[in-house]
Amino acid sequence: MLLFFCKPDAPAVKGALPVKNVKIKIDTLYQSKYYSLQDSTGSYTVSVYLNELNRGVFRYRYKGTKPLQLQTKAMQTVLNTVFKDTSLHINLHTFIWGALSKSGHNDFLMSKRLALAAAQSDAWNKKTGKPFTGHENPFVLKLANHAQIYPELSTLFRKFGYKIEVSGVEKVFILPAEKLPFWDEISGQANRKDKLPFDCQTWFSIEKSKN
Fold first, then answer.
1. pLDDT digits over 39-68, tens only?
2. pTM here?
3. What are the CA-CA distances from residue 38 to residues 75, 76, 125, 144 (Å)?
């Protein structure tokens, strides 16, 4: 999935009021609006793309050392500002997560869940590291949703009235289980030589819950 940017010049930002030190700014070159929060746990940024081609797409980035479970409180604060920003006039629908494996701060939570789901799946060929039928991208997409490898994100977005699910997967990484960075944690649940998917570029779709 590619992103394209255009229209380099735009006025300085004056949007929704920041919440709890959430800072807001517009990058006129990349036509993006940034909502950022920095505290003792790290730096949290949500980028909303403003150009027509990527309208409704937003992205999350974190710099720090905390695993996903300890990021959600700050994420909620930032997203609260995003969803309350009446100046956006954008229907947000696609959430870019990037790689599942966040090795920079040793966060392999979703990667571990994906690998274990594949290890337990009769549709995944553990000898070849491929699904028995079809391509690994759609297989991993379906598996990630079926196994619900992202409960923290589901809970987070539910607070804002949204349902979230994996909508796009690219560049699936596959390794023998014994070479995975979290092998010690899953060694009792997978065979050493099983070739398992554990990482991929990931997109989520979000939509307003009907109830």
1. 988 999 999 999 999 999 999 999 999 999
2. 0.88
3. 11, 13, 43, 30
